Amino acid sequence: MKLSSAYYLNQDAVGVAKDLLGKVLFTKIDGEISAGIIVETEAYFGINDKASHAYGGRRTNRTETMYSQGGVAYVYLCYGMHHLFNVVTSVKDEPHAVLIRAIEPLVGKDLMEQRRKMPATKSAISSGPGSAARALGIDRKFNTKDLTGEEIWIEDHQIRYREDEIAACPRVGIAYAQEHALLPWRFFVRGNKYVSKPNKL
DNA sequence: TGGACGATGACCT
DNA sequence: GGTCATCGTCCAC
To answer: What keywords are annotated for this sequence in UniProt (predicted)?
Structure first.
């Protein structure tokens, strides 16, 4: 049920990004559990990906997390106010990661409503990477945490989507990545209301 | 050591 | 469609 450490050693972050759709992301904070179905992801593919923080092999205090062996959380602050959560994949020193861009609330909806100060019926509660992380209570303290531990983990609930239910399109907010901005490394579940905009092809 | 800049979202018209 | 909040990170000085 809980994804094992072996799952995260996969060296194909694009494949993992697609495979994570339908998996369930859990957090347990102060004994309280919340979880959501992953419905939107983006792959950041190693040192040759211009959109990645690790492009060109850049190694800094922040990016060091991405160079860890797969199976840890990479969380960083974006625009001074949003915590973005990534799943680190692949082997040590290969900085691949998958950004979780949206979840569908599944467990602990009341907790999410408190954190987001809006009803769980409203799609904005967990739509977009900043909102999804906040709904689950993920902040910078989760950076480098083990994804097979007791605070944050991912489960396989046998939710499977057909090929035609999954869309692949260019990633969001990375215009600076030039030609790499067009790579279809964003995946989402078609028609799911929690998918962030733009949610059409 | 300072200043530009985000893998965004909320609220406005 | 437009504006702007807000701060850690990175690199040029």
So the answer is: DNA damage, DNA repair, Hydrolase
